From TrEMBL:
It is a multi-pass membrane protein. This is DMT family transporter. GO terms for cellular component: plasma membrane. Residues 293-316 are annotated as: Disordered. It is found in: Cell membrane. Residues 293-305 have a biased composition (Polar residues). Belongs to the EamA transporter family. InterPro entries: AA-Vitamin_Transporters (IPR050638), EamA_dom (IPR000620), EmrE-like (IPR037185). The keyword Cell membrane applies. Keywords: Cell membrane, Membrane, Transmembrane, Transmembrane helix. It comes from Sinanaerobacter chloroacetimidivorans. The chain crosses the membrane at residues 12-32, 38-57, 69-85, 97-117, 124-144, 150-168, 189-206, 218-239, 251-267, 273-290.
Length: 316
């Protein structure tokens, strides 16, 4: 019973995380008037780091270089590479392309988890669900415009971003097995991500001014991204990875376009076409199918081993 409550809490945490991540585009869109993408990126993770430091000021103690390398690699993939690749990809290709390609991340995660993690093998229902969901994501992102132009550089960067996020999910699943505090682990990942991002600032447009932060709309949106989308959501996402596993957790990425299009309609008053509505239905159906665990049936229906059959039924 306790395990069922923990699993339910994991699904709820993943859903809340995706709900926040799906609305970050609004804050980002407002901030892009005064900030460059890399300025927003660095600011939100610096804020997130110090917020987590205040909540959990204790140091995470690792047992050796191997464990420390997990945190460094997670910071490199989940903070530095993913966000830099995604932001740079948006300068080369359409946002719709990036939205579709990044949504392929659950497939990459499932493939990697199949070979690198125990108990997370791929199932037929996952493949079918992925095809249905990604079809829905495409319809949502295009929203009836049918504009999807290939751009080798941008699309390649978006694909690499999806891949490194999958690697990040695998790494955090391994980190969760260390039994360390989730907040402390996330803070350590932020630390390495920011350190590894520092050399890039000399080549990218990074020159923030104090007046930009003094404006209330900018400050509020940065707080939302730093405290909500970074500090809170990364902690909840990383905790969920340990509860549900890398594959099931990553499937919630499908819901991001659904949240985004709903927020667009409610807040920005953008038009949603019937095609996008169909995409929402397909995405949610694909998510449900991918999350389904096949029911186990007893190979022997005879009465030779009634106790074993009863125990299996109870497990269901």
């Amino acid at each position: 019973m306790l395990e069922k409550h923990r699993t339910a809490a994991g699904h709820l945490a993943a859903l809340i995380t995706i709900l926040i991540w799906g609305t970050t585009f609004i804050s980002t869109k407002i901030l892009l008037i005064d900030f460059t993408p890399v300025e927003i990126l660095v600011t939100r993770f610096v804020m997130g780091y110090f917020a987590l430091l205040m909540v959990y000021p204790h140091r995470i103690k690792t047992k050796g270089i191997k464990e420390e390398a997990l945190f460094l690699s997670a910071g490199l993939c989940g903070v530095t590479l993913y966000f830099l690749m995604e932001n740079i990809a948006l300068t080369y290709t359409l946002a719709s392309n990036v939205g579709v390609i990044v949504s392929v991340s659950p497939l990459f995660t499932a493939i990697l988890a199949h070979f690198l993690l125990e108990g997370e093998s791929m199932r037929t229902s996952f493949i079918i669900g992925f095809i249905i969901a990604i079809t829905g994501v495409i319809l949502i992102v295009l929203n009836g415009s049918y504009i999807l132009k290939l751009n080798p550089i941008g699309d390649l960067l978006a694909t690499l971003a999806a891949l490194v996020w999958s690697v990040y999910s695998i790494l955090m699943r391994k980190i969760s097995d260390l039994g360390q505090n989730s907040i402390g682990c996330t803070r350590r990942v932020f630390f390495y991500g920011l350190i590894l991002m520092t050399p890039c600032l000399f080549f990218l447009d990074f020159d923030p001014e104090f007046r930009q932060f003094a404006e209330l709309p900018n400050l509020l949106n940065l707080l939302f991204l730093g405290l909500g989308a970074s500090a809170l959501c990364f902690v909840s996402w990383n905790w969920t990875l340990g509860v549900l596993g890398a594959v099931k957790t990553s499937l919630y990425i499908y819901v991001i376009p659904v949240i985004t299009i709903a927020a667009s309609a409610l807040i920005l008053r953008e038009t949603i076409t019937p095609v996008a509505c169909a995409g929402v239905v397909l995405t949610l159906a694909g998510l449900y199918l991918s999350q389904r665990t096949p029911q186990r049936t007893s190979p022997d229906t005879s009465q030779e081993q009634p106790k074993a059959v009863l125990e299996e039924d109870l497990d269901l």
